[in-house]
Amino acid sequence: MAARKDGIPRPAAAGEQPGWAQELLEHLRPAGRDVRRVVDWLAGTVHGSVALRDDTGTLVAGTGPVLDENLVADVTSGRIASAAWEDGERYLRLVQVGHPSRTWALAVSRDTPFDRHSADVVTHTAQVIELLLTAGETTVAGQRLRRASADLRLAILQLLMVEDTVAARRVAAGLWPGLLEADTACVYVVESEPARRDRLAEEALESTEEEALVVRCPAMDGHVIVVSPREATAGDLKSLVERYPDTFLGGSVRQSLARTATAYGQAVSALAVARFRPDKTAVYAERTHPERLMDPAALRGRTARLLRPLDAVPHHTRAELLATTRLGLEFTAVNTAKILGVSRNTVRARMERVENMLGADFDDLTARAVVHLALHTQFNLQDGQAGSAFEASVPGLAHLVSGPAVRAWAGELLERLDQDARPLRRTLRTWIAAGGNAERAAQLLGVHAQTVREHVRSAEPVLERQLLAAGTDLYEVVLAHLALGDLETPVFAGPVPTSPPG
């Protein structure tokens, strides 16, 4: 109906939407989808009171009249579709509203009888409420499904991070058949503003056609982690990064699934290079690693001797301590806890136990670097060589890390810093000796702490290694300083005795 100039309603012309219908349709727009607003609108349009009740009789929206509960039950149970009656000076209508999981009841009360206009408004409003309830139910179900899928993908990644590939494949097989059937995969990390992360994760899922494990990083708010055996994934992610500003991509070399944590570290390391490249992408360079330049037999023997105290604990406990420490040396305790799905206190307790058993000081970057080297060597050993008989003749740590090949590698690496007019090399050495603490290094150097941070940050693209975040890159640079004798070799005291209880 439309109004004439004299205020008397007139029928709407053919094909013309009544004003109330246009208003009602506005409530179906994404920005206006609110059942309570629709109920309030209906009350104002029919000049009455309106209430929406669920199948338990609970008031969901509005402030309608007191109703006969038996009649409401008849409507919500589907025995009747609608009812109309007069109660003294009030006129009431009760209309069934369908819902995906149950039926609701819309009650309308007026001081005047319902004419055709008001009856049409009530009927159409009930249909709109039904659409909104259905859409809401579908949206909620979709959100729950997406959250559950995201939680499962995170659980799979956490299993891969601790080398439990059997359990990871078992979890993935039910929902994403074939996802982890390959023995090897590459890990990619997409970095962006945290506000854009969810959108990037969804687009990564679409571009990889769910043939990759896409996870919102539990530790870094701006990171999306992608584990994929497909060669095409790199191209898919590069196209994604090209579409957005301030978005970068780092990728690992192909690794076995059991080495997902190593591959993740490589991808994060590649991000440090990607930030300085025009195409905003980088793949971890399979560069020369210091451990490959050391005598393999001596390295196995030194590793076995250093980690020998851990052999005293049960096998499952030892594996748990080693896995946690490997990640704990790569990331902060908080981020390690998020990756493993445990508390940060648990991470700290496990690492403190390893510290005590090895007689190490993890506040010392040189000690961390040597333990990191041992843990990765231990993980990569497949031949079971290096017995206790050989350990007795193992050369000292200083001799192991300062062989001719290692020294040549270290010299070439650190000499890159000499090309800068600033004393980057001196600052970096002092910062490492200070445990990576910019304030302490600044005091030793007699400069401002911000200067120390800027020098260390400037060294990153020169060395093509990420330094400000602890990890493999930093530990390689520490080993380079040890090889050249620029830092003192750490001393491991062996197991620290504990006092008996009481």
The span between the termini is 90 Å
Number of helices: 20
Query: For the CA atoms, what is the radius of gyration?
Result: 33 Å
| Whole-number mean pLDDT | 82
Percent in strands:
5-15%
Helix/sheet category: alpha+beta
Coarse morphology: elongated
Q: What is the count of β-strands?
A: 13
Largest sheet: 6 strands, mixed
**Helix amount, in percent?**
40-55%
Low-confidence stretches: 1-17, 382-392, 497-502
Describe the structure.
- It comes from Streptomyces chlorus.
- This is Helix-turn-helix domain-containing protein.
- With about 500 residues, the protein is of the alpha+beta class.
- Helix content is about 50%, strand content about 10%.
- The protein is built from 20 helices and 13 strands.
- It has helices spanning about 20-25, 35-45, 70-75, 115-160, 165-175, 195-205, 230-240, 260-275, 295-305, 315-330, 335-340, 345-360, 365-380, 390, 395-400, 405-415, 425-435, 440-445, 450-465, 470-485; strands at about 1-5, 10, 50-55, 60, 80-85, 90-95, 105-110, 185-190, 215, 225-230, 250, 255, 280-285.
- The strands form 3 sheets. Strands 8, 9, 10, 11, 12 and 13 form a 6-stranded mixed beta sheet that branches.
- β3 (about 50-55) and β4 (about 60) form a beta hairpin.
- α11 crosses α12 (about 345-360), α17 (about 425-435) crosses α18 and α17 packs across α19.
- It is elongated.
- The relative contact order is 0.07.
- The model is unreliable at about 1-15, about 380-390 and about 495-500 (pLDDT under 50).
